[in-house]
Design brief:
The protein is mainly β. The chain is built from one helix and nine strands; from the N terminus they run βαββββββββ. The strands form three sheets. The protein has a four-stranded parallel sheet, with no helix packed on it. The protein starts with 5 loop residues before the first strand and ends in a 14-residue tail after the last strand.
C-alpha cells in the first residue's frame, strides 16, 4: 500500500497534551507528509525532525516553540509560518530566523 498526500495534525487531544518536544529525526524521510500543525504544547523541535520530507508544503510554528535544533527543515520545500507572538523565531526574507535578544547593559556597580 502506498500512501500519498498525508497531512498530520498533532492535536492536544491526540497526544493528551503531553507532547512538549518533537524529537530528533522523528519525521525524517517521511516523503508522504504534506503538512503539519504543531500544537501550542510544543516548546522544542529536535535536530533533523522534518529532514527530507520532500512533500511537506506547509508548517506553522506556534508561539510556544522557543527552541529549534539544526537542520530541522533540511531538504524540505515547506512554506514555514511563525505565530506573530513567538518570542524566539520569525520569518525574514522567506527564511526562518532566530530572534536575537538585545542584552541589557548593566550600569557600573549595579547588582545582579
Amino acid at each position: 500500500m502506498k500512501m500519498t498526500d498525508v497531512s498530520l495534525t498533532i492535536t492536544p487531544e491526540l497526544v493528551l497534551k503531553a507532547v512538549k518536544k518533537i524529537g530528533n529525526w522523528l519525521f525524517s524521510d517521511c516523503s508522504s507528509l504534506t503538512s503539519i500543525i504543531i500544537p501550542e504544547t510544543v516548546t522544542h523541535i529536535g535536530e533533523d525532525a522534518f529532514r527530507d520530507c520532500t512533500a511537506l508544503t506547509s508548517v506553522h510554528i506556534p508561539a510556544s516553540v522557543v527552541s529549534i535544533d539544526a537542520y530541522v527543515f533540511c531538504n524540505c520545500p515547506a512554506v514555514i509560518t511563525v505565530h506573530p507572538d513567538n518570542p524566539a523565531f520569525k520569518i525574514e526574507n522567506g527564511e526562518l530566523v532566530k530572534i536575537k535578544r538585545k542584552r541589557k547593559k548593566r550600569k557600573k556597580n549595579e547588582k545582579v
